[in-house]
């Protein structure tokens, strides 16, 4: 059985934590736990906001009259906020009118009584503390604003109370919105909710309070080919996702799965037990299977379903082409370079409503590497560790990278969501827009658009007209079901295909999916 300390660290969000801690304490009833252990356990449970477990552990003390105050710094006011009735708290607040300082006293976690009332989830107590003069902007030890404490236990009611209270007190619109306030590490409430797996708060922030999932988290990279793979300086909110339910919510709100860490994305696709283990998985591929699948190749049909053991292992473990080259070092390996790899930059990842993931094309390594290649395949993951491969003739779907892949549900699917839509007839389709591509394929002034039919995986070239963005890449795309259109913002546009240099896109371009015509909305000078 894990120790009390281990249990508290690992299971603070677990509904069974109280009974688990109780069982451990009962089993240790012979010699009672060491004072150091009890003290550490109290501090951990308190820091996690598990005040029920705090009370349980405190009952084990026999040599200290009030361990809550001596160990945690909980004065009588704190204890009334956490364990007392509203009436008892009101009496204490009336008695404290001449001593307002006690309202801002902090415990060992640098929390005020008001912040603890939020953790308790008692709106009446929180309201009475505010009426008594508590600071509504009090922050925790790491600068956590009040809404973070509502999110800690996924308390949507308290979250909405705080937001409503803030909006009522700031009707002039001054100051930073409460849903944009950050801690000292610049974590927003949405980031905190995602990290805490607070599903209800995530949905409330996205749907009711319209929090932007992207914000300014995606600065433009350098506009030269040599730096296409540079990392953004700020971590996107989706990178903290560990559950499918939250992932769905973020993607529906416009977050891009491409911004997730490759390992985290692999776990959600079902490869948690195999990712990164190429030293174990590559040896399971026979020399013949490697020889059959090692080369980058195009399909002969639209689509061509590919069954390849080598490709499957490469997807499961995420190995680079060079790792495969070392494993199968031979004349065959040398002759087939670039070696096929799924360790790619600039590939898109689209989440389907049924839980499948669709990853499209991308590039491996830089242009000077012997294994550099830009791909034109499609890999469909079932989310359980299995995948399907589809290849295409180069003239049907050219090699593509740093594009966007936007799912447009079928009219039937959109109507089932009770939305007023102006959808395109037909089945669901993923619209693939933009590309970097090979220099010889780049056409300045033209924007490549392809449609991937989700029901058949057939690729269709979409002919468009109007004021198109040009040869754009690294942009963002958002689908609007009300107007049946996809809007393109950000990114950069190649103007000289030979040099591969681009200019920053400052305009918004919209593709009407019914007329297939582009329009431009110029940015304000």
From TrEMBL:
Do you know which Pfam families this protein is assigned to? Ank_2
Q: Which keywords belong to this entry? A: ANK repeat, Repeat
Q: Does the keyword Isomerase apply?
A: no
Q: InterPro entries this protein is in?
A: Ankyrin_rpt (IPR002110), Ankyrin_rpt-contain_sf (IPR036770), Gal_Oxase/kelch_b-propeller (IPR011043), Multifunctional_ANK_Repeat (IPR051165)
Which SMART domains does the entry link to?
ANK
UniProt name for this protein: Uncharacterized protein
Classification lineage = Eukaryota, Sar, Stramenopiles, Ochrophyta, Bacillariophyta
């Amino acid at each position: 059985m894990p120790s009390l300390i281990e249990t508290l660290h690992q299971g603070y969000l677990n509904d069974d934590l109280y009974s688990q801690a109780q069982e451990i304490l009962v089993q240790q009833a012979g010699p009672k736990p060491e004072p150091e252990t009890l003290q550490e356990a109290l501090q951990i449970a308190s820091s996690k906001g598990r005040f029920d477990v705090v009370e349980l552990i405190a009952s084990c003390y026999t040599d200290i009259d009030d361990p809550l105050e001596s160990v945690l710094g909980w004065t009588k006011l704190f204890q009334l906020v956490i364990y007392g009735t509203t009436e008892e708290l009101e009496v204490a607040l009336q008695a404290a009118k001449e001593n307002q300082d006690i309202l801002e006293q902090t415990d060992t976690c640098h929390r005020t009584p008001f912040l603890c009332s939020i953790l308790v989830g008692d709106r009446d107590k929180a309201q009475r503390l505010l009426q008594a003069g508590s600071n509504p902007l009090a922050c925790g030890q790491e600068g956590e604003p009040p809404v973070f404490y509502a999110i800690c236990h996924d308390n949507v009611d308290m979250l909405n109370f705080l937001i409503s209270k803030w909006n009522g007190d700031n009707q002039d619109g001054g100051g930073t919105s409460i849903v944009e306030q950050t801690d000292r590490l610049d974590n927003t409430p949405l980031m905190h909710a995602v990290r805490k797996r607070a599903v209800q708060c995530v949905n409330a922030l996205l749907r009711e309070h319209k929090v932007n999932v992207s914000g300014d988290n995606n600065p433009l990279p350098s506009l030269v080919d040599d730096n296409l793979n540079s990392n953004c300086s700020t971590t996107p909110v989706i990178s903290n996702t560990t559950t499918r339910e939250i992932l769905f919510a973020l993607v529906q709100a416009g977050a891009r799965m491409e911004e997730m860490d490759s390992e985290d994305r692999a776990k959600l696709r079902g490869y948690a037990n195999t990712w990164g283990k190429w030293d174990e998985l590559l040896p399971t591929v026979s020399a013949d299977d490697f020889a059959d699948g090692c080369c980058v190749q195009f399909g002969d049909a639209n689509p061509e379903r590919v069954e390849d053991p080598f490709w499957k292992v490469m997807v499961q473990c995420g190995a680079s082409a060079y790792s495969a080259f070392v494993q199968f070092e031979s004349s065959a390996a040398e002759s087939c370079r670039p070696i096929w790899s799924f360790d790619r930059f600039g590939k898109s990842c689209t989440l389907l409503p049924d839980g499948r993931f669709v990853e499209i094309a991308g590039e491996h390594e830089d242009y000077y590497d012997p294994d550099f290649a830009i791909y034109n395949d499609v890999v469909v993951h079932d989310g359980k560790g299995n995948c399907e491969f589809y290849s295409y003739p180069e003239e049907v779907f050219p090699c593509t990278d740093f594009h966007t892949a936007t799912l447009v549900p079928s009219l039937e699917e959109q109507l089932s969501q009770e939305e007023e839509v102006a959808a395109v007839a037909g089945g669901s389709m993923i619209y693939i827009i933009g590309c970097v591509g090979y220099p010889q394929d780049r056409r300045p002034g033209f924007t490549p658009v392809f449609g991937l039919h989700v029901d058949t995986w057939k690729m269709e070239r979409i002919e468009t007209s109007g004021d198109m963005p040009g040869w754009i890449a690294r942009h963002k795309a958002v689908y609007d079901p009300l107007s049946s259109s996809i809007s393109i913002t950000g990114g950069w546009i190649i103007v000289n295909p030979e040099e591969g240099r681009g200019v920053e896109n400052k305009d918004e371009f919209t593709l009407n999916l019914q007329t297939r015509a582009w329009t431009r909305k110029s940015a304000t000078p």
